[in-house]
Amino acid sequence: KCAHLRLVCQAEQKPYYTSKLWWCGITLLGLGEVGNFTAYGFAPITLIAPLGCVSVIGSAFISVFFLKKTMRTADILGGTLTVTGICLLVTFAPNVPQELTASQVQNYLVSWPFLVYSILEIIIFCILLYFYKRKAVKHIVVLLMMVALLASLTVIAVKAVSSMIALSVMGKMQLTYSIFYIMSVLMATSCAFQIKFLNQAMHLYEATAVVPINFVFFTASAIISGVIFYREFQSAALLSVFMFLFG
């Protein structure tokens, strides 16, 4: 956001990717995602995704200090509710085995719940892309919904790749399976397009609006994809499911 603001103030308008500050931000974002990537190999998606609230709270304070934004009462209340909700999500997240082999990933990929979910996601994404490209609708919700739809695929791929690498390091080689490379390509491609639409949102809207909305959309899409693809709530108690949804 700082990079975009500086470029706007310059007499000669340059593309954002010529800014060293922008690349610094992308690098820091990438380092953070490396931590996320590692975590997905050892814990359920429904536990890792909500912990992204740390970035929301952090961004709120960073915006105050570096972007000179005002911290409103509503922001403080929202932050408090977010932390409270995350505590419930983490407490009641499903406790499922995290050993995920290439064969299991292949079976999940061709299961009918995921195929139905994929078709619906593609249809919704195409509709949003039509409005974005043909109708020039660049509303924050349209942009961040596209990011969230891509993020659900990223999360599925990241967990598969991370888990297979973790198993391979422990001596159970999974990197010889073609599904590992398919998931790696899916992860890289969906990440690249996420950056494109997220960058567009950051360019047009305030960080204090983009970060929280993106967090809510991302968390919802990640949890849904975890439930559908990896069946993380398959054996969970009804009380745990209720308290998780309440959180």
Give the rounded overall mean pLDDT.
Answer: 86
- H/E order of the elements? HHHHHHHHHHH
Number of helices: 11
- Name the quaternary structure: single chain
Stretches with pLDDT under 50, minimum 5 residues: none
Q: Number of folding domains?
A: 1
Distance between the termini: 30 Å
Shape: globular
Structural Rg: 19 Å
How many strands in all? 0
Subcellular location: Membrane
Main location: membrane
Family: Belongs to the NIPA family.
Keywords: Membrane, Transmembrane, Transmembrane helix
Layout of SSEs?
Blueprint (H helix, E strand, L loop, with lengths): L1 H8 L10 H21 L4 H4 L4 H14 L6 H19 L10 H8 L2 H22 L6 H30 L8 H27 L2 H23 L8 H9 L1
How does this model look, in words?
With 247 residues, this protein is an all-alpha fold. The chain has 11 helices and no strands.
Question: How would you briefly describe this protein structure?
Answer:
This protein is mostly helical and 247 residues long. It is built from eleven helices and no strands.
